[in-house]
Design a protein that fits this description.
Helices cover 25% and strands 30% of the residues. With 105 residues, it is α+β, with helices and mostly antiparallel strands. It has a single domain, classed as Alpha-Beta Plaits (2-Layer Sandwich), CATH 3.30.70.1060.
Length: 105
């Protein structure tokens, strides 16, 4: 059974409530940073929940300390656009098939 971490981040005090996510300061830098974490396999899944006030990340890491250290390098962390609400270990008990399946398998 794989164990990952579910990380919830929320909008911080620097977030401009009237501006969409992509219009927030340092959007391009934040997006590039997160894409790198995903390409490395550190972030497995991520994105806004519901109306977007909260973000859920599924992370493959050895510890909460590693997660906090890696996310500290996000431009949106230093500027307080996003803050960590919680980091919880998540043991996956169910795993279905995701995405389109190759009919030839």
């Amino acid at each position: 059974m794989p164990t990952y971490f579910a990380v919830r981040r929320v909008r911080g005090p620097a977030w401009i409530a009237t501006a969409p996510m992509r219009d927030q300061a340092l959007w391009a830098e934040h997006a590039a940073f997160m894409n790198t974490l995903a390409a490395e396999g550190f972030v497995l899944l991520g994105g806004p929940l519901g109306t977007g006030e909260e973000v859920l990340l599924v992370i493959d890491a050895a510890s909460e300390d590693i997660i906090r250290a890696r996310l500290a390098a996000d431009p949106w962390t230093d500027t307080r656009l996003l803050v960590i609400k919680s980091v919880q270990p998540w043991t996956v008990l169910l795993e279905g098939r995701a995405g389109p399946q190759d009919p030839h398998k």
